[in-house]
Design brief:
It is built from 17 helices and 13 strands. By secondary structure, it is of the alpha/beta class. A seven-stranded mixed sheet has the order 2-10-9-8-7-3-4, sandwiched between helices. Strands 1-12 form a two-stranded parallel sheet. Helix 2 packs across helix 13, helix 7 (163-172) runs parallel beside helix 8 and helix 16 crosses helix 17. The longest helix has 32 residues, at 310-341. The radius of gyration is 21 Å and the shape is globular. Bound molecules: pyridoxal-5'-phosphate. Pyridoxal-5'-phosphate (PLP) binds next to helix 5.
């Protein structure tokens, strides 16, 4: 049997626990700033109009059935996904140095990448994450028994990037380490390196022969501009790195529950690059087969239809600007309300940070007080989901913050 010493009770996932507590709260003023999903100005989930359109087109398509996809997924989807992140003109694509495999959203892409590196990366590399990072990174890499460590990332004093600390840790890491990087809209801080800082990081990673692993969960959702949000990844590819990318379509298509994602492995330029890519592809297929057999079809079909149709693609870009624009407006509104109230401290970081999340700098005690006194729900580390704010509650939230900070 399974005695307690062998199977102890595990703690509840903090984020899912927070969601349950929010649902149980009967107060009508309650505010959910925990959720990592887009909400419209009425705090409701938003089905992107272009996704609704694609959905109808698919439902009316008599040629569709429920057969299995190939092991590596829907080819129209994976090749469009590669163009989206790398840029259609990427030499890595024309030189056939990229292998793309459909995954169970971004989480599945990180997992399959971790599994592949565990099995095939020479030596026993340590994976370095930013401190803090998306909580699941640690679990995913630990589950496949890769040693993990962290590099400093967030400066408590500036509420911006601790660039010196980050570089220092990356240069002290043993050569050939795996460095996990958030492609854009860092979760949970909302703090990204500038382009010059990315360039310095690329130089440093190259000197140290580190392997970059990009996690890209917010392309287009962060700035509203797909190329801008992919800049760091494209720069690293341009610099000739061998790297991999976990790509999620949960946020930018609002396809959270459909689990549409992709894993890309980019081989560095060399005369044998194509055959290396093909060997890697063959091993990834074996891993995929034993893990999930083949990926789910529906979300990938929706994304594929939109990515491969010029008109739908343009509509999607418009929808991305709607989401990112609303979030950017909420950042501005929150900062200006706090400044108007004269709330002690500086609040420029709210608008300096980007993407779904903001690290407010609120302490664990202040977060608990906000929940007790104002029915505001956010994670203990002071992270808020900007998508939970809207024109109806931003002032209420700013006033609540003002009270706990004073
Ligand atoms: N990586 C990061 C940094 C994330 O923030 C998320 C989602 O919150 C993911 C990956 C994966 O999300 P999903 O598995 O829903 O695509």
């Amino acid at each position: 049997s399974f005695p307690e010493y062998a199977v102890p009770q595990a703690p509840e996932d903090p984020l899912f626990g927070l969601m349950a507590a929010f649902r149980a709260d009967g107060d009508e003023k309650k505010v959910d700033l925990g959720i990592g999903a887009y909400r419209d100005n009425d705090a409701k989930p938003w089905v992107l109009p272009v996704v609704k359109k694609a959905d109808i087109l698919l439902r009316d398509d008599p040629s569709l059935n429920h057969e299995y996809l190939p092991i590596a997924g829907l080819t129209d989807f994976t090749s469009a996904a590669a163009k989206l992140i790398l840029g259609a003109e990427s030499p890595a694509l024309s030189e056939k140095r990229v292998h793309s495999m459909q995954t169970i959203s971004g989480t599945g892409a990180v997992h399959i990448g971790a599994l592949f590196l565990r099995k095939f990366y020479a030596g026993a590399p340590t994976v370095y994450f930013s401190n803090p990072t998306w909580a699941n990174h640690n679990q995913i890499f630990s589950n496949v028994h890769l040693p993990t460590s962290t590099y400093p990332y967030f400066s408590k004093s500036t509420k911006g990037l601790d660039f010196a600390g980050m570089k220092n840790a990356i240069s002290s890491a043993p050569d050939h380490s795996i460095i996990l990087l958030h492609a854009c809209a860092h979760n949970p801080t909302g703090v990204d390196p500038t382009r010059d800082q990315w360039k310095e990081l690329a130089m440093l990673l190259k000197q140290k022969r580190h392997f970059p692993f990009f996690d890209c969960a917010y392309q287009g959702f962060a700035s509203g501009d797909l190329a801008k949000d992919a800049w760091a990844v494209r720069y690293f590819v341009e610099q000739g790195f061998e790297l991999c990318i976990a790509q999620s379509f949960a946020k930018n298509f609002g396809l959270y529950g459909e689990r549409a994602g992709c894993f890309h492995f980019v081989t560095s330029p060399s005369s044998s690059a194509t055959s290396t890519t093909s060997r890697i592809a063959s091993q990834l297929a074996i891993l995929q087969r034993s893990e999930i057999s083949n990926p789910p079809a529906y979300g990938a079909r929706i994304a594929s239809l939109i990515l491969n149709d010029t008109k739908l693609f343009a509509e999607w870009e418009e929808n991305l600007r709607t989401m990112s624009g609303r979030i950017i407006n909420m950042r501005k509104a929150l900062r200006s309300k706090l400044e108007e109230l004269g709330t002690p401290g500086t609040w420029n970081h709210i608008t300096d940070q980007i993407g779904m999340f903001s690290f407010t700098g609120l302490s664990e005690k202040q977060v608990a007080e906000l929940r007790e006194s104002s029915h505001v729900y956010m994670t203990k580390n002071g992270r808020i989901s900007m998508a939970g704010l809207n024109t109806h509650n931003v002032e209420y939230f700013a006033k609540a913050v003002d009270r706990v900070v004073r």
